[in-house]
């Protein structure tokens, strides 16, 4: 999903992705503020890449992220400000993911 829906502030709540999806890349969605909806049914999701979403403020709940083995967040300054890397308030959501890469570089 790269800039396909630039006006979206959050992903649709209805089930629109197959639950068997194992890798998801969300990038270039400049108005996206939340991932709390839309990916909650992805029970097979193994890798999640989020990039160049400068207004993204929240990740899905921990239950949604439990299946991940890899999370990459790039160029999402509001998430970085929440100190995801330094065990800030959102750390419990991602702490159990084996491979985490959070940076401001592409």
From TrEMBL:
Keywords: Plant defense. Transmembrane segments: none annotated. One of its GO terms (biological process) is defense response. This is CC-NBS-LRR protein. It comes from Ilex paraguariensis (yerba mate).
């Amino acid at each position: 999903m790269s800039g396909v829906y630039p006006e979206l502030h959050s992903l649709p709540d209805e089930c629109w992705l197959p639950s068997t999806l194992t890798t998801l890349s969300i990038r270039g969605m400049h108005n996206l503020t939340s991932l709390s909806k839309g990916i909650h049914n992805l029970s097979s999701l193994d890798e999640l890449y989020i990039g160049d979403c400068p207004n993204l403020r929240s990740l899905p709940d921990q239950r949604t992220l439990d299946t991940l083995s890899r999370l990459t967040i790039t160029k999402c300054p509001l998430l970085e400000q929440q100190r995801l890397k330094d065990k800030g308030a959102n750390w419990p959501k991602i702490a159990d993911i084996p491979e985490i890469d959070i940076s401001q570089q592409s």
